[in-house]
Specification:
Length: 784
C-alpha cells in the first residue's frame, strides 16, 4: 500500500514538473524547444519556390474544419445555399436549352469532327465563352454556381460543346487577365474574349513535363529584337507543348515558360522563373493547327510549338513586373476552375446516366420483367442514384464556396478527384445495365461516348493518382493543420529568435492538440459517439451521421499527427499511406456535402434513401481507409495502439443495407419527383427521335401499360394462349386483343408502348464500310 502511495506521489510530482515546464514558455523554450527546433530545421526538406507557391496558394474552407478534428456543424449549416439570379435562371432556361438543341453528339463525333458553325456561332454570340468575365468588360459576369449549372447541363448533351465552354471559363487567359492583367490588357482582350472574337487556349503541359508541370523545359531569354519595325526589349521564346485544349483554333495562346535574363537586362535575377504570356496566333513563328484525337471527343485539342519566337515584354500577363510570377499566378487561380469544370462535367454525365439508364431499365424487359426490377440490376442502379446525388452535392457546395470568395485548394482537389472517380463508376454501371445497347455506337446510343471519354476527366487538371497520393493529404496537412504550416514558417524565418519563439508556440499548441484528439477519439469510440454535440436544427434521421463524422474527424486528426510525428518527411514518399489519409478526409467532405444538400433542399423525404445509402457507403469506405492505414502503418506498435484508440469496440459501419438500396433503385426506374430532382439539369428533348427523349416517353407508356401486361400474364398462366405462336414477347399484345383479353383502347396503349420500346431498344447498324469510305484521292491521282 505504501509502495503504491509513493508511486502515486512520484507520478504526481512528475506530472506537475512537466506541467510547470510546459506552462512557462521561457523555460520550455530554453530546455526543450530550442533543441527540437534545431533538429526540425535540419530534417525539414528543402522546398523549391514552386513547391512553396503550390502549398501556399488558395484558401482553407470546410475541409479545414474536418481536418482539425472537431468540425463546427453550425458553420456548415450556415453556409448560404447557392442560388441563381433571375437573369442566370433565364439563361439556363433559354440560351443553354437552345445551345443543347443545336448539337447532336453523334453528328459532332462522327460526321463533323467538331461542332457545327451554327453551334459555334451561337455560343460565341450569346457569351458562353465569357461566363466568368465581369459585365463591365462585356461578359456575362455570372456566379460560380450559375457557371457550374451551365456546364453541368451542357455535359448532359455533348462533350465537345461543354468542354469548349468550360475551358475558356476555367484556368486560362481570361481568369489570369482578370487577376493579374494590366488595365490595357484587360480592356483590350476581355471584351473580345467575352464575345468570342478571340478564342483562348492555355499551354502549360509539355511532352517532358506533364504531372510535374513546374519542370517545363520551355524557355525564353530576355533580349532586344525588332518589333513592328522598332528595336524593343523582349524575349525569344522556344516551346513544345501538347494536349492543349482549343489550341487548333485559338487566336490567343496563353503560354507558360521559364524566363532567363542572362545579361541582366531587367536588372535582377538571371533565372526569373515561370512566366505566363499571351501570344496572338499571328505572331510570326507560332505553330498551331494540328489536332490530337482524345478518345473520340471532338473538342479541339492539339500541340503548339515555336522556336526562338521574338515577342515584346508586354505580352507577359501583368507586364514585365509579373515576369517570373507565373507559377504563383497559376496556383492561385487553379482552385476556382478546378472547383467547377470537372465536377460539373462529371455531374452532368452522371445525371444523364441516372435519367436515361433508370428509364431504360424499366422499359427493357427480360424474363417477362423490367430488368431494373431484378435484384442484381438494382445494385448498379442504386450506386448510380446515390453517387449522382452525392456528386451533385459536392459540385454545388464547392461552387458555392467560390461564390463566397474562397479559393479552396484542398476542397477543389477533393471535388475534382472524387466527382470524376464517382462519375467513372456511375457511367460504368450504366453501361452494364443497358448491355449491348451501350456497346454498339450510333445515333441512338446515349452513353457510349460518355463511357469512352470518362478517362479524360480523370487525367486532366491534376491526374487522379497523383492528386490522391500527393495533394489531398499532403497539401491538406500543411494547409489545414492549425500548427504544421506555422512550424514550417517558423523554421524558414530569417529572424532566428522570432522563429524560435513562433516555433515554441506552435509546437506546444500542436502537442496539446494531438493529446486532446487522442482522448476525444478514444472517448467517442468507447461511447459510440452518442455524446457528441449536434445542433438541434439538423434532421433527426441524420443526427447520428454528424456524431460519427465528428468521431472520424477526431480519429483522423490523431492519425495525421501520429503519422507526421513517426514518419516525418518519409510520409511524402509513403504515398499509399498518404492516399488513405486523403481518402478519409475526402470521405468526410463528401458526407458533409451530402448532409448539407439534404438540409438545403428541405429534407425531402423521397430523397432520403439516396442520402442514406450514399452516407453509409462513404462512411464504410472511410472506415476501410482507416483500416488500410492502420494495417500498413510501418511501426506496428504505434499502428496497433492507434487501432485500439480509434476502434476500441470494433467498427461502427457496415455496407449500406439492401433495403435502402432497393428503395433507391425503385425511385430510379419511376418518374418520381426524387428522380426529377436528381437529374434536374439533364437536357430532355421530348421527341421520339432523340434517344433520351424516347426513353422518357417510353417510360411513361410502359408504366401506363403495366396493369394491362399483368392481366395478359394472368391469362397466359391460365392457358389462354396455349400453343399460340403469336404469344411471344413481341406479339403477345396482338394475341391478347384477338382473344378478347384486352380492349381496343388497351391494345392501342400497348401498341404505343411497343412502338416507343422498340425505338428505345433499337441498336444502329451501318453499311459494311460504316458509310465512312471516301474515294482515295491518291489512288485517283495514280490512275491519272
Ligand atoms: C484531353 C486533354 C486536355 C488537356 N488540356 C490541357 C490544356 O488545355 N493545357 C495544358 O497545359 N494541359 C492540358 N492537358 C494536360 C494534362 O493536364 C496532363 O495530361 C496531366 O497533367 C497529366 O500529365 P501526363 O498526361 O503527361 O501524365 P504523366 O505526368 O506522365 O503521369 C502518368 C501517371 O503517373 C501519375 N503520377 C505522376 N506523378 C506521380 C506522383 N508523384 N505520385 C503518384 N502518381 C504520379 C499520374 O497521376 C498519372 O496517372 C490536357 C490533357 C488531355 C489528355
Amino acid at each position: 500500500m505504501i509502495v503504491f502511495q509513493i508511486l502515486m506521489l512520484v507520478l504526481a510530482a512528475l506530472v506537475a514538473a512537466v506541467f510547470a515546464l510546459v506552462s512557462i514558455p521561457p523555460l520550455r523554450c530554453a530546455l526543450l524547444s530550442r533543441k527540437i527546433f534545431k533538429v526540425y530545421k535540419s530534417i525539414l526538406p528543402q522546398m523549391s519556390e514552386t513547391e512553396r507557391d503550390s502549398l501556399e496558394a488558395g484558401t482553407v474552407w470546410w475541409e479545414g474544419e474536418l481536418f482539425r478534428g472537431n468540425p463546427d456543424w453550425c458553420k456548415l449549416l450556415a453556409y448560404p445555399v447557392p442560388t441563381m439570379t433571375a437573369e442566370e435562371q433565364s439563361f439556363m432556361d433559354n440560351e443553354v436549352e437552345q445551345a443543347c438543341a443545336l448539337v447532336q453528339d453523334w453528328q459532332v463525333t462522327t460526321e463533323l469532327n467538331d461542332m457545327s458553325p451554327e453551334a459555334w456561332g451561337y455560343i460565341k454570340e450569346r457569351g458562353f465563352l465569357g461566363i466568368i468575365i465581369p459585365k463591365k468588360y462585356g461578359g456575362l459576369g455570372f456566379s460560380a454556381y450559375a457557371h457550374s449549372q451551365i456546364v453541368t447541363k451542357l455535359s448532359t448533351r455533348c462533350s465537345a460543346q461543354s468542354v469548349s465552354v468550360m475551358v475558356p471559363n476555367s484556368l486560362g487567359p481570361a481568369e489570369l487577365l482578370l487577376h493579374y492583367g494590366t488595365e490595357e490588357q484587360k480592356s483590350h482582350y476581355l471584351p473580345r474574349l467575352a464575345k468570342g472574337l478571340e478564342i483562348p487556349a492555355f499551354a502549360l503541359t509539355s511532352p517532358w513535363a506533364g504531372s510535374d508541370a513546374a519542370s517545363i523545359p520551355d524557355s525564353a531569354t530576355v533580349c532586344k529584337g525588332l518589333w513592328q519595325g522598332k528595336e524593343v526589349l523582349g524575349m525569344r521564346v522556344t516551346w513544345d507543348k501538347r494536349y492543349i485544349t482549343l489550341a487548333p483554333i485559338c487566336t490567343i495562346l496563353g503560354l507558360a515558360f521559364r524566363l532567363y535574363d542572362p545579361d541582366g537586362l531587367l536588372g535582377g535575377k538571371k533565372d526569373l522563373g515561370i512566366t505566363c504570356a499571351l501570344v496572338p496566333k499571328t505572331t510570326p513563328g507560332v505553330e498551331l493547327g494540328r489536332r490530337h484525337f482524345p478518345l473520340n471527343a471532338m473538342f479541339l485539342n492539339g500541340p503548339t510549338r515555336g522556336k526562338d519566337v521574338f515577342m515584346p515584354l508586354h505580352y507577359i500577363i501583368g507586364g514585365k513586373d509579373m515576369a517570373g510570377k507565373g507559377w504563383r499566378m497559376l496556383m492561385e487561380c487553379l482552385a476556382a476552375g478546378r472547383s467547377i469544370s470537372l465536377p460539373s462535367a462529371n455531374s452532368g454525365m452522371a445525371q444523364l446516366t441516372a435519367r436515361a439508364v433508370g428509364g431504360y431499365a424499366r422499359v427493357r424487359n427480360q424474363f417477362k420483367m423490367a430488368v431494373g426490377r431484378f435484384e442484381g440490376v438494382e445494385e448498379p442502379l442504386t450506386r448510380i442514384g446515390a453517387y449522382t446525388y452525392m456528386m451533385d452535392s459536392v459540385r454545388k457546395m464547392t461552387a458555392g464556396a467560390v461564390d463566397l470568395g474562397e479559393k479552396p485548394s484542398v476542397a477543389s482537389a477533393i471535388a475534382k478527384y472524387h466527382v470524376t472517380e464517382l462519375g467513372r463508376k456511375v457511367v460504368n454501371d450504366g453501361m452494364d445495365v443497358i448491355g449491348g445497347k451501350g456497346i454498339c455506337l450510333g445515333p441512338s446510343n446515349f452513353l457510349g461516348r460518355a463511357y469512352q471519354q470518362i478517362p479524360i476527366g480523370i487525367t486532366v487538371e491534376g491526374a487522379n493518382i497523383l492528386t490522391r497520393s500527393l495533394i489531398l493529404f499532403g497539401q491538406g496537412a500543411i494547409r489545414c493543420h492549425p500548427y504544421v504550416f506555422r512550424e514550417m514558417q517558423a523554421a524558414h524565418n530569417p529572424d532566428a529568435a522570432q522563429g524560435l519563439k513562433d516555433f515554441d508556440d506552435a509546437l506546444f499548441g500542436h502537442v496539446f492538440y494531438t493529446i486532446r484528439h487522442g482522448f476525444r477519439a478514444l472517448w467517442n469510440g468507447l461511447t459510440g459517439s452518442h455524446f457528441v454535440f449536434v445542433p438541434d436544427n439538423v434532421a433527426p434521421e441524420t443526427r447520428r451521421y454528424y456524431q460519427q463524422l465528428t468521431r472520424f474527424s477526431a480519429a483522423f486528426a490523431l492519425s495525421a499527427d501520429v503519422a507526421m510525428l513517426v514518419l516525418g518527411g518519409e510520409l511524402k514518399r509513403r504515398e499509399k499511406l498518404s492516399a488513405r489519409l486523403g481518402d478519409i478526409l475526402s470521405m468526410m467532405f463528401l458526407c458533409s456535402a451530402t448532409l448539407k444538400r439534404y438540409e438545403s433542399e428541405g429534407r425531402q423525404k423521397d430523397d432520403a434513401p439516396l442520402m442514406h445509402w450514399a452516407i453509409w457507403d462513404t462512411m464504410y469506405k472511410a472506415q476501410t481507409a482507416f483500416d488500410g492505414f492502420l494495417a500498413n502503418f510501418p511501426n506496428r506498435f504505434v499502428g496497433n495502439m492507434l487501432r485500439r484508440i480509434i476502434f476500441p469496440l470494433g467498427h461502427p459501419y457496415d455496407v449500406p443495407s439492401d433495403r435502402i438500396g432497393h428503395q433507391v433503385a425503385r425511385l430510379m426506374i419511376s418518374p418520381t419527383v426524387a428522380r426529377n430532382r436528381l437529374t434536374a439539369e439533364c437536357y430532355l428533348p421530348m421527341h421520339e427521335h432523340e434517344p433520351v427523349g424516347a426513353i422518357e416517353l417510353a417510360l411513361q407508356a410502359t408504366i401506363n401499360a403495366e396493369p394491362i401486361d399483368a392481366r395478359i400474364r394472368a391469362a397466359e398462366k391460365e392457358g389462354v394462349f396455349a400453343n399460340d405462336p403469336q404469344a411471344n414477347v413481341r406479339d403477345i399484345a396482338h394475341a391478347a386483343f384477338s382473344r378478347g383479353v384486352i380492349s381496343r383502347d388497351e391494345y392501342a396503349l400497348l401498341k404505343r408502348r411497343n412502338h416507343l420500346r422498340d425505338i428505345v431498344i433499337h441498336v444502329d447498324d451501318f453499311p459494311f464500310d460504316f458509310g465512312f469510305s471516301r474515294p482515295n484521292p491518291l489512288a485517283a491521282n495514280a490512275a491519272e
